[in-house]
Structures are given as structure tokens and as C-alpha cells.
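Thread: Modeling a multi-component assembly for a lab meeting

Hi all, long-time lurker, first post. My supervisor asked me to bring a structural picture of a complex we are working on to next week's group meeting, and I have zero experience with this. I have the sequence lines for every component (445 residues in total). Could someone generate the structure of the whole assembly? Inputs are pasted exactly as I received them:
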Amino acid sequence: MAKLSREASHEVRFRLNGRNVTAQAPARMLLTDLLRHVLGETGTHVGCEHGVCGACTVQLDGEPVRACLMLAAQAEGADIRTVEGLELAPGALSPLQAAFREHFALQCGFCTAGILMSLDALLERAPDASEETIREHLSGHLCRCTGYTPIVKAALAAQAQLKEEAANA
Amino acid sequence: MKPAPFDFVRADSLGEALEALHEAGDEARVIAGGQSLVPMLNMRLARPSVLVDVMRIRELCRIEERKGQIVVGAAVKQVELERWSPLAALLPLVASALPWVGHAQTRSRGTVCGSLAHADPSAELPLALLALGGEVHLRNRRKKRVLPASAFFMGMMATAVEPGEMIEAVAFPSHPMGTGTAFNEVARRHGDFAIVACAAIARADGTNRLAVGGVADTPQAIELPDPADDGFEDALNEFAWSLGARDDLHASARYRRDLVRSLGRQTVEEAIAWRS
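Re: Modeling a multi-component assembly
Sure thing. I ran the full set together rather than chain by chain. Output:
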């Protein structure tokens, strides 16, 4: 059993985008704030802070989760992936990211990181996900610029490319 | 929009969790997936001084079939139940309700028991539990007790859980042969709070049970005859009025009553069609 008192900061250890991270966080700190303010990983955005908008979505052990609805202390021992971990190599966008650029699936970009993390997890788990399933997963995100249609197009294009790559591999 | 300060206890066993809850009394809250509690903390609608995290307690991570019941431990995530392969055969009503719970991005972390503990009037899992006549297993450091869903839900976001006590598991009666079930919901978008949600069970003997969420402070259920019978329409209408629907931002009371009548009938008819 671990008791983290409210007065002090406490050590949290987890994997972040493939590397081991140790950070200090007060008991009440949210994972979003640990990522952004303590670790300086500002790709994860913060919108509503009550789980509605989806901007802060990250992957926890491969599943998309709201970083604003998790305490940093709950991330102990977890494997976390954020938008910083998506690129294939420095400067080389993943097929999903490239499809977003190609299909104008973003404008202001505020919601984009969260949507990328959700769709990346979906395409990994369900490579044959239907357009309906993709739309259902998008219902967990708010985008005020695109009207969603270009995002669905980008997701379908990325899916087609990933399937082709898998077939040729 | 940040939580007020609290002490955080990460329990490794049920005993540790119950001891920590006992010590802190009504100042403590259990945190599991946090998908309902953390928004309340962020908005400071809840200000517990101690949080007891139960997600690492192994014995609470199980889904078990026991004496005609499916028992789901307090640390089982909604997505884990959703992907549990016997679910559609053993609990078809829960299988059809789960995709309506929040979003994929919250079901990945939110627990089944956590949704019951939060007891939102429009939540799907409390509705399914009441429709099926399931039970909640509660425990403090000294004793266990089992409450039927009808006694567990006491009001809007209010349950029978006492200080020092926590939900250990929830038990859904498994699906009897020859029974049909159906679930329907009307919301502004998929994943939004239900304006009206209906769960129906059509039994082999021709009787039906309809439970409705999103209207009264807690989910409510009624026994109904066959939709072709004379009494069906009146009984359903009376039920719709009895729920005390109110006007709010999302829908008028009248629209909610209309939905109870139309969606209620449709859901019972679908349950009958599934009966085999």
C-alpha cells in the first residue's frame, strides 16, 4: 500500500513514448498537468477538464483514455503514449498523421492530438473498423473547425494505407 | 478546475482498502476508473479528504459465473466486460447497453461498479441492473451485505453505500432460456447523457418488464402485459406520468413522457422479437 499525503510531492514512474520517466507530482495532480507542466510534453491539449471534449486523449496500455480524468498517481507503472510518440522517426509523420494533412482533417489543431491518439488506437486494435465505428469513436471528441467529414476521410485513407502496408509486409 | 487537495491511498488488497475507508469515514471516497469522480473533483463538486484507489486489487479484477449470476468485481473496466466473450450469450441486455455508456475513450477506464456508485439518473448500467433485478455486494471492514438494485439506488447520485463501505462487486442474473431483451436510448449525440433510455425483458411466460432511465431520479421499472393486450397502452401511459418528468436544458417533460410511451413500446416489442 502506498499513502501519498496531500502536503508533499511524490514520485511517479511510468513509460512515456517508449522511455522510462520518473517525475514528482502532488497527490491531486492530473495526468494532463504532469505531462504538460512537469514533463513539458505540451502536445496533449487540455480543453474541458471533465472528459467531454477529448482534446487530452492519450493511450494508456494501448487504450485511448482521457488524461484529464486520471490522476498522475494512477499512472504509476503504466505505458503511456502521447501525440509526441506517433511519428515514425524525427520529422516522419505516421500514415494517420500524413492522412490528416493530406485531407485537411485539421484547421486550428486544438482537438487533433486527442483525435489522433483515439484513431491510432482504433486502427491498431480493429484494422477493419467500419466508417460507422470510426464515427462512433469520433463521437468522443469535439472539433469545431472541420465538421468531422475530412477527419473521417483521413481515417479511412490511413486505414487503406495501413492495410496495404500490412499486405506487402 | 483542479481538484482540492486530498491524501491518496493506493491499496494493494481489499483489506487495506477497507481499513483506509474505515479510518477516514465519510471524508473518504473510493476511486476506481475515476470517469465520474474525477470530473466531480475537478469541478469541486466533490471534496473528499482521502481517495482510496482500488484499481490494483487483484481480487476485484474478476468476472465470474457463480450460481446463475455474473459477478463483476469493482475494478473491472467497462471495456473488459464489453469484450468478455460470453457476454452476449449470458447477459445480452448488458451487452446491448454497454456501447451506450459514455464513449470508447471513457469505457476504456471507467468501471462497471463505478457507474453504479455514481448513480447518475440517466446512466445505462444502473438501468440494466434494475431491469434485470441484479444485486450490489457491499462490504466494510467487518461485514458484507447484498442489496437488490431497487434498494441500492436511493436518489439522484445517491446510493445506500455507507461511510467505511465500498462496492465489492455487482451481480447480474444470467440470461434465462426463452427470454428476450432489448435496449434503446435517445440522446442528442451517441455517448451523451440519455434523454430517455429503455431496457426491456420479455419472459417465456408472456410477461414483460420495462425499465426506464433518464426521467426519474433513479431508474424505474414496471411489469407490462403483451403489447397487443388492452391494458398495455394505459399501463405504459400511467407509468410515463408516474416518473415525474421535468423540463430541462435537454428536453421538455412532455417530450420525455412521449419517449417513454413510444420508445418503451418499441423496446418491449423488440425484446419479444428476441424471445426464443
